[in-house]
Amino acid sequence: MKLFIDTANVAEIREAWDMGMICGVTTNPSLIAREGADLEERMREILSIVTDGPINGEAIGTSAEELTAGARKLARIDSRIVVKVPMTQEGLKAIRTLKAEGIKTNATLVFSAAQGLLAARAGASYISPFLGRLDDIGQPSEALLEAFADIWSMYDLETEIIAASIRSPEHVVSAARLGIHIATVPYKILLAMTEHPLTDAGIKRFEADWQDALKKRGQST
Ligand code: G3P
C-alpha cells in the first residue's frame, strides 16, 4: 500500500519525505487556505520537495467548465499534478473531458460505492473516499472500503482508491488489510504510526544495560 501525505504544509511534507514515508501528496482548498498559500505557488514548492510521485491540487468551481478550466491551469504546472474534482454530476463531465486530454484527476468527496464506481467509469485516475467524515456521522467507513475492495477485485478498473480523511493509524491499517491502493495521511497520524510504547521502553532498557556493562568493565560512555 502506498502512503501520501495530506497537507499543504511544506515543513511537514519535507519531514515525511526525508523519512521515506510518502510517495505523493494531497491537498484541498481548506489545507491551502490554512497555510495562507497561493495554490499554484504551493504546488511548485511541493513538486520541488517530493521529486517523484503525484501531487494533488483541487480545481475550484461548480460547473464542468469552471472545473475543467481550473484543472487545465493546474495541470500545466507539471505532468505529476493530479487535479482533484468534486464528485458531482458536473465533476463527472469534467473528469471525462480531462481524461480525454490526458489530465489525471482524483474524484474527491466520495462517500458511497455508487459514487466511486461512477467516477471510475468517467475516467478518474483516483477516487478518494473520506473515512473520518463518514465515521463522524455514524456511518462505518470500513464497510465502504469493503465494498470498494469487493468491486475492484471483480473488475479490471484502472482507477486507484485513495483512503482519505484519515483520523488514526487504525484507519490506515484497515485500508491496507483490504488491499486499498493508497492512504493519504495527515502528518500527525504519520508520526503516531511511528510510535509504540514498547519501542521507547526497549530503547531505555538497551541504553541502561549498555551503561551497566560499561561500568562493570570500569569504563564510562
Ligand atoms: O484528503 C481529504 C482530507 O483532507 C479530508 O480530511 O480530516 O478534513 O476530513 P478531513
Helix and strand layout, with pairings?
Elements: E1 2-6, H1 10-18, E2 25-26, H2 29-35, H3 39-49, E3 55-58, H4 64-75, E4 81-86, H5 89-100, E5 105-110, H6 113-122, E6 126-129, H7 131-136, H8 141-154, E7 160-163, H9 169-177, E8 182-185, H10 187-194, H11 197-216
Parallel strand pairs: 1-2, 1-8, 2-3, 3-4, 4-5, 5-6, 6-7, 7-8
Helix pairs in contact: 1-3, 4-5
The chain binds SN-glycerol-3-phosphate (G3P).
Q: What does this entry look like structurally?
A:
With 221 residues, this protein is an alpha/beta fold. It contains eleven helices and eight strands. It has helices at residues 10-18, 29-35, 39-49, 64-75, 89-100, 113-122, 131-136, 141-154, 169-177, 187-194, 197-216; strands at 2-6, 25-26, 55-58, 81-86, 105-110, 126-129, 160-163, 182-185. Helix 9 (169-177) links the parallel strand 7 and strand 8. Helix 4 packs across helix 5. The longest helix is centred in the last third of the chain and has 20 residues, at 197-216. The relative contact order is 0.12. The model has no long low-confidence stretch (mean pLDDT 97). SN-glycerol-3-phosphate binds next to helix 7.
Compose a concise summary of this entry.
The protein is of the alpha/beta class.
Biggest sheet: strands, sense, closure? 8 strands, parallel, barrel
Count of alpha/pi helices: 11
Low-confidence stretches: none
Give the names of the bound compounds: SN-glycerol-3-phosphate
What value does the average pLDDT take? 97
Helices and strands, in N-to-C order?
Answer: EHEHHEHEHEHEHHEHEHH
Proportion of residues in extended strands: 15-25%
> Care to count the β-strands?
8
The Cα radius of gyration reads 21 Å
Strand order of the largest sheet: 1-2-3-4-5-6-7-8
Distance between the ends = 42 Å
- The global form is globular
Helix content: 40-55%
